[in-house]
UniProtKB/TrEMBL annotation:
InterPro entries the record matches: LysR-type_TF_proteobact-type, LysR_HTH_N, LysR_subst-bd, WH-like_DNA-bd_sf, WH_DNA-bd_sf
A biological process term (GO) from this entry: DNA-templated transcription
Gene3D superfamilies: Periplasmic binding protein-like II, Winged helix-like DNA-binding domain superfamily/Winged helix DNA-binding domain
Phylogenetic classification of the source organism: Bacteria, Pseudomonadati, Pseudomonadota, Alphaproteobacteria, Rhodospirillales
Similarity field: Belongs to the LysR transcriptional regulatory family.
Record protein name field: LysR family transcriptional regulator
Length: 294
């Protein structure tokens, strides 16, 4: 029998050495800092030597540990390729995606039937986060976040642009029939609906519309945009919404854009993929599909 070290501890050690941080390793693997520390201690005990030394407040891999981690990483890569080659071609694959709630509800999920039609063997599991800037956690294959495609922003991830974002005025067709908005000044007298998660939307739109003097108008504020969107659809007031994610509502007659020529560009969305992921190109193919849909 081969005398192998504990494989789970090896996996955690490789991530900790690669990321240079117990905390980042825990975030990538969905573990606590203490769990990472205990597994590395177990591996050190098995090997009979230290793998990390304390440097200030950080634990830093020793030179020998860095060499060992590189070999372990290559071994895991070979194992992943071998497992992919031996896998059953008809076996269902699970792809875990993390996305902001509004992005998932209004853009991603309505399009997933097209992905599943071309990839019937893949099950996409979508988990939502409450804000577009929520920190990355382990346990997902692809994370969608608002941001730009700059590698240094997420050094442990490959960053792929997915969707541009632009804000415009939205209202319900029923409210438009009662009190139409044909020019920017027509918004006076309407109830302005806003979202805590999209602070500044009204200020920026009013500036783009040349209505800076109305910035101080009172607003009805909800905690999240998907609540605001529902209030707009129900005719409770008018709002500012991200056009790409509201195309299905506009096409379905639930919402309308009375002044579509007045738009405010926003930071778009990117797909974040852990650099160690995807030996079988499943994740890369899904990210390409996302970009193609956009």
């Amino acid at each position: 029998m081969r005398r192998l070290p504990p494989l789970n501890a090896l996996r955690i050690f490789e991530v900790a050495a690669r990321t240079g941080s117990y905390a980042e390793a825990g975030a990538e693997l969905g573990l606590t800092h203490g769990a990472v520390s205990r597994q590395i201690a177990a591996l050190e005990s098995w090997l009979g030597q230290r793998l990390f030394v304390k440097d200030g407040r950080r634990m830093v891999a020793t030179p020998m540990a860095r060499i060992f981690a590189a070999e372990v990483g290559l071994s895991f890569d070979r194992l992943a390729v071998a497992a992919e080659a031996c896998g059953r071609p008809d076996a269902r694959r699970i792809l875990r995606v993390s996305a902001p709630t509004s992005f998932a509800m209004r853009w991603l999920i309505p399009r997933l039937n097209r992905y599943h039609a071309d990839h019937p063997q893949v099950e996409v599991v979508v988990a939502t986060v409450s804000t577009v800037f929520e920190e990355l956690r382990g346990g997902v294959d692809v994370a969608i976040r608002r941001g730009v495609a700059r590698e240094h922003a997420w050094p442990q991830h490959r960053v792929v642009p997915v969707l541009d974002d632009v804000d415009t005025l939205i209202m319900s067709p029923a409210l438009f029939a009662q009190r139409p908005i044909l020019k920017p000044a027509d918004i006076e007298g309407h109830t302005l609906l806003a979202s805590e998660t999209r602070a500044g939307d009204w200020t920026d739109w009013l500036a783009a519309a040349g209505l800076q003097h109305l910035t101080g108008l009172p607003r009805q504020i909800f905690d999240h945009f998907f609540v605001t969107r529902q209030a707009v659809e129900d005719g409770l007031g008018i709002g500012i919404g991200p056009l790409p994610m509201l195309e299905i509502d506009v096409a379905g007659g639930r919402l309308m854009t009375p002044l579509p020529e007045i738009r405010v560009p926003r930071t778009g969305y990117v797909a974040l993929v852990p650099r160690h992921a995807d030996a079988g190109n499943l994740v890369a193919g899904f990210v390409d599909w996302l970009a193609g849909e956009a």
